[in-house]
Amino acid sequence: MEKSKLIQLLKSLSKKEFGELEHFVKSPIHNKDKDAVKLYQYLKKCFPDFPTYKIKKEQVTAAVYGTKNDKNLKKLKYPASAMTKCVEDYILWKGLQKEQRDADILSLKVYQKRGLDKFFLKKVEDIKRALESNPEIGHDYYLFKHIMYELVYDNTSTSRVGDKFEEVLQQKKENLELFYTSTRLYHYLQDLNRTELLFSANKPAPFNMIIKEIEGKALYDKHPIFEIYVFLAKNIPTVDSFDAEETKRVLLLFYENARIFSYYINNTIALLFIQFLTKVYNHGNVDLISAIFSIIKFGIEKKILHLENGNIMPIIFYNAIIFACENGAFDWSNFLLEKEAINLPNTHRDSIISLSNAYINTSQGNHDACLTILSRVNYKKHYYFYDIMVKTLVIRCYFEQKESNLLYNYLETFYAFVRRHNLISVGQKERFNRYGRFVLILDNNRYSRKYTKKELYNKLSQEKNIYFRSWLNRMITKQ
């Protein structure tokens, strides 16, 4: 039974849900097979792992019928089928408890089918009020409104809603168009982001076409989600002509409307803004550190940057620590370690916590403490990201401690690691190598005084893709 539909459905349930399922199995409305109750009681002992040796057909048959003869083996399919139906009923019921919009649509369909016009129209008005007070706008928001007006339109066509026919028809068409357009743009942004075309001016023709569609139909007036989407789509590739005021305006638009956007919309917009501003920052705009930190802080505190299961991605957590430290927000970085580290995936938690503590220590000038933390952890069991982050921190520590010999030797191994590692992209290799070379320039300049501070600032500003730009900027100030 290991690969059966029943077992796969049961494995998807939580402990609490498995307990609630018992009410369905024992209810004569959902189940009329008494043997299904026995089957549930046995499988309850196997939950949640359902070991293979315990759920073999012979084993389960013996538990349900007492013996495992051929007749009983064939009969097992009946209680198994009945219980599968119970699980499906339970999952549907559970889903309707969580998905209010699905439940609302089902209610409207039931009232309409039974000719309960008074209750149908009252439900429509209740839904409208609920949408106004708590819209939670996402792509499904427009689809939900379209389906609702579709049902109202059906009533209109039979003179149940009277003179509202044209208004309902217009709402029906408008919301379908909004759903279609927002969904297309959302998925284009997602696909372009995944394929790294988002930061290229050479976008596919359909992408440019959808931008023109949105601007041409003045959908900005319908909801700010379109203005934010179009801003990101048009401006992300053109980091060299960055408009600080326009970016600030659209960011404020996002902050003001995040409470009514769905999780998926907020998550996508926040991540794209972080990537956009980080790219501009890496191209020389050091002033953007506070803006990037504000988005990350906002996203974490509002649970926008968390995964749906409540976890937070290691890269998001570590970037939050970096930008908090770069902004001098050490209290917030400590808050992050105390309150949010628990939400890191188990396999990464210890490593990210250690790496974060090391970054905080080196940012506060505690270089020996940083090096001690880094030496105790084996990051090589993880993705290369941990290894490269450790190496960049060691370089910082050696430089700030004025350990030139250690620094030169370590930089050689750093360059070799970056050059040989196949998982590091060409752009990342360029960024890390520039970082190493500029640290070397600064270390040599301590003694040679070859460059003035102004010349060093100019050299750094000309580096369009370099790691730890704000730290390098501070090190020039100290020269």
Question: How is this structure best described in words?
Answer:
By secondary structure, the protein is mainly alpha-helical. Among the domains are: 94 residues, no CATH class; 81 residues, no CATH class. 72% of the residues lie in helices and 0% in strands. The longest helix is centred in the middle third of the chain and has 30 residues. The protein is flat and about 90 Å long. The N and C termini lie far apart (71 Å). The model has no long low-confidence stretch (mean pLDDT 84).
Topology order in helix (H) and strand (E) letters: HHHHHHHHHHHHHHHHHHHHHHHH
Amount of beta strand: under 5%
Q: What's the overall average pLDDT, rounded?
A: 84
**Strand tally:** 0
Indicate the low-confidence ranges by residue numbers.
none
What distance separates the N and C termini? 71 Å
Helical proportion, percent range:
over 70%
Radius of gyration: 30 Å
User: How would you describe the shape?
Assistant: flat
Helix-strand category = mainly alpha
Number of helices: 24
Biggest sheet descriptor: none
